[in-house]
Write a structure and sequence with these properties.
468 residues; 5 domains; 17 helices; four-stranded antiparallel beta sheet; Nucleotidyltransferase, domain 5; five-stranded mixed beta sheet; alpha+beta
């Protein structure tokens, strides 16, 4: 079949007065082809209208495609059962040409970014071998859209705490922040809304404000909007993680950092430069880091248990035994557990990241074998009790051995009774309980209430005036 340019040449030569034989000789065409073009009188290539073997079954194919849930193998089997002599390839080609079960092809969009305009952040689950055991972990990645500079770290989970840890490390690795951080509609950052109407969690909005950027979410169904960070996950899985094993979490993320340095220094063919070379142009356009970047940590309030430990994520961390029963503040950072009593740091431990149940004990937090136990300072509630009512000292001394590891709770309950009930019936009930050796605070409180009801809540006799 002649193409449009050949048909145009035939018509032009004929318009100039050339005969059929001369046109055919000049264009090296057959005279029949030249006559056909002249008979058509147009340079447009005619559409071939050929009957297809599947044309009589077009309605059946459409119905079977729905009933067979889009499985063309089953559609072909059902057509053969109905007597159609069609090959499987003929059925699939017919469906493709007539748009049965296929989405119309749409052109891919192209996003361009100026230097320092946007960075993209996302996570993806991957299997990692750590210490000989395969585990499902969360791979976090940050990519600068202009230079394609990438930063990758892997964590056991990805909560709001780990998100702030990762972004802090990533921005320090880059040395600044772009104006916008594109994310998907993840609950880690999003409080409500999607896309342009997304409202970030106040905690994350304050974090972004500290570094001079803002979070932005792509619209639902527009995952290509964050393709700068989505595309490298396949490369991470099949290049960095493929065939690698790691001794522990520190080794894993150190190797990930070394891999990022190598990838960022490699020339990309589609960029005609390495990300590091392009980053040299982008670096001056980034928002500088704040003068002081505080450490990211989660705050927990704990009471030191009777064994001298505090619990954080199924792991127990030791505390100086003199603080048993005291309230302490635990700061869970990226790799450490710091324990404070008021403003003073009293213990620091390496954080256990694998989530296994266990104990981390510092030898200095335990008394030396054979050494006499130093006298313990009274608990704050005990000091307050004796200050409010010194006459309870004998009862306090007697009740402690019966508390069985619940001394702080017992003292707190007794302090509440001193503050809530009149002093005279309370002291009378305590004296009676001490004489009979009763140290159950539930029974003690009932004794107090009986005395209060008898002395303070007198029911008037029938017929008496309430005003009297």
């Amino acid at each position: 079949m002649l193409d449009q340019s050949q048909r145009t040449a035939v018509l032009e030569l004929h318009r100039q007065g050339q005969g059929v034989r001369a046109v055919a000789r000049a264009l090296r065409l057959s005279r029949g082809a030249v006559r056909a073009v002249l008979a058509a009188g147009t340079a447009s290539v005619p559409t071939l209208a050929r009957a297809e073997k599947a044309d009589p079954y077009v309605d059946d194919i459409r119905q079977l495609y729905v009933s067979c849930q889009g499985n063309l193998v089953r559609v072909h089997e059902e057509l053969r059962a109905r007597g159609a002599t069609l090959s499987y390839q003929a059925v699939t080609g017919f469906c493709r040409r007539h748009g049965i079960g296929t989405e119309p092809i749409t052109p891919a969009g192209v996003y361009t970014f100026d230097a320092g305009q946007e960075m993209q952040h996302d996570t993806s689950p991957h299997r990692v071998t750590i210490g000989g055991q395969g585990r499902l972990m969360q791979t976090a990645s940050l990519v600068l859209c202009y230079s394609r500079l990438i930063y990758v770290q892997i964590y056991p989970a990805f909560t709001r705490f780990w998100c702030k840890v990762f972004l802090t490390d990533a921005l320090q690795y880059v040395g600044g922040a772009c104006g916008t951080c594109m994310i998907d509609n993840t609950h880690v950052v999003v409080l409500r809304g999607t896309g342009a109407e997304m409202v970030p969690v106040p905690e994350m909005a304050a974090f972004a404000e500290r570094f001079g950027f803002r979070f932005r979410a792509h619209e639902k169904g527009h995952a290509n909007r964050s393709a700068r960070v989505e595309r490298p996950f396949h490369f991470i899985e099949h290049n960095f993680l493929a065939g690698r094993t790691f001794a522990d979490w520190t080794d894993l993320n150190q190797q990930a950092l070394a891999w990022c340095d190598r990838v960022n220094a490699t020339v990309a063919r589609h960029l005609h430069a390495s990300p590091r070379e392009l980053f040299a142009v982008e670096r001056p356009q980034l928002t500088p880091l704040p003068v002081w970047v505080p450490a990211v940590y989660q705050l927990h309030h704990r009471i030191v248990d009777t064994a001298g430990y505090v619990h954080v994520d199924r792991t127990r961390y030791s505390v100086p035994f003199a603080l048993i029963g005291r309230d302490v503040e635990v700061r869970e950072a990226k790799a450490t557990i710091e324990i404070f009593q008021g403003p003073r740091l009293i213990a620091t431990h390496a954080k256990v990241l694998d989530g296994a149940t266990g104990c981390v004990t510092a030898p200095a937090h335990r008394p030396a074998r054979g050494a006499p136990r130093p006298p313990r300072e009274p608990l704050p509630d005990e000091v307050t009790l004796l200050r409010l009512e010194p006459r309870l000292a004998r009862y306090l001394t007697a009740i402690k051995p019966h508390a069985a590891g619940r001394v702080p709770r017992v003292l707190r309950r007794l302090l509440g009774m001193v503050r809530d009930y009149p002093r005279a019936p309370l002291l009378a009930a305590v004296a009676a309980a001490a004489d009979y050796g009763l140290y159950d605070l539930e029974r003690l409180e009932r004794m107090v209430l009986q005395r209060i009801a008898h002395d303070y809540f007198v029911v008037p006799a029938p017929g008496e005036d309430d005003d009297d």
